[in-house]
């Protein structure tokens, strides 16, 4: 080989090594400068074939310069002749230029006549395989437009921490598949259901909430019918903790009484909820964490029936009216189904925040996520045991997301509970804090 060849080979090898190193050490800039343009061009170039393969095209009549079929002359020779004529062609949905995102790319399409975003959602898996990406998610922010978001790799395999939220009652607990923060915001979504099999990451999420809420001026209350093993270590920051059925009943009665008191205060001040009260009158918000919700409803024998009915009604009342009076629920459980009793279905209806970790059976996913898009249910069932903390989340914006909570060890939550123990208002003070008449400045 001549020197020139050696040179060329050397340069090629150096370029390849450079690209590899770039990709390895600064994937984000590599993706934007090299990876994404190549992907964008391929996606645009192959769109007709992909759309056809996924059944997203429509037949349209077009004038086309093409061969005339059936032109056989009397001699038997086929004469090929082209001319303009109307024929049926497959048209693909119009595709805008793809745009890069943190974990892949997104592109907007114009739907063809008769198509709905659901048609695209139905073939999302086909699209993902055609493009060789991890997943394609479909959304639509405008009639006639569909946005496809492709993620190249599962972004939830490792999630890095985000800065803690500084807003009251708002905790950043993890990251969404889109790269955005997964926020539990009790002021927007007051009550949450958190379902999942054992070892799926439910308690981890409760830990994240404790770490996030501990430094805030809120009262935390725990219901732990696993004998207190989950929440007792966090007791210093909890204003109240119930670990037996009797204690749960008592604490729920307290919560209902608290709500009634706060109702009185709001009525007196002409406010619809505690946030409309003047800051001097505003009571401290209470976040109620319930671990193993089913235990509250499980009946060992008939004698417990009345007690359970009472508990169930009290919990439901808290859920129905708590929002306005600053009492928020976060209920964790392995199964949150109607088989637990009639109260559960009503409670579920009040909880608009839904989190479904890995579950053992499809019914639990359906029960937790309700009648969301079937793709959400499929996604929930596909959560692998190797990735605890991954969950399907549905909340305020009506969309569902795959998300993963940050890993928050029990030790971290325990540390936060001790560090901020001084901020825990005593339960007696929370109960007694309701003024029974307005201060002079308010009555004037
Ligand atoms: N987001 C996460 N990232 C990494 N590991 C996690 C995450 N969530 C949970 N885990 C791991 O999974 C295990 C089980 O989680 P846990 O919250 O105790 O599940 P559950 O309460 O549903 O039984 C924990 O020991 C923890 O190490
Ligand atoms: Mg647990």
UniProtKB/TrEMBL annotation:
Xref: PROSITE patterns: FTSK
Keywords carried by this UniProt record: ATP-binding, Membrane, Nucleotide-binding, Transmembrane, Transmembrane helix
Chain ranges passing through the membrane: 6-22, 29-47
InterPro entries for the chain: FtsK/SpoIIIE/SftA, FtsK_dom, P-loop_NTPase
Keyword rRNA processing: no
Pfam families recorded: FtsK_SpoIIIE
Sequence positions that bind ATP: 196-203
Domain FtsK: 179-366
Name of the protein: FtsK/SpoIIIE domain-containing protein
Organism annotation: Nonomuraea corallina
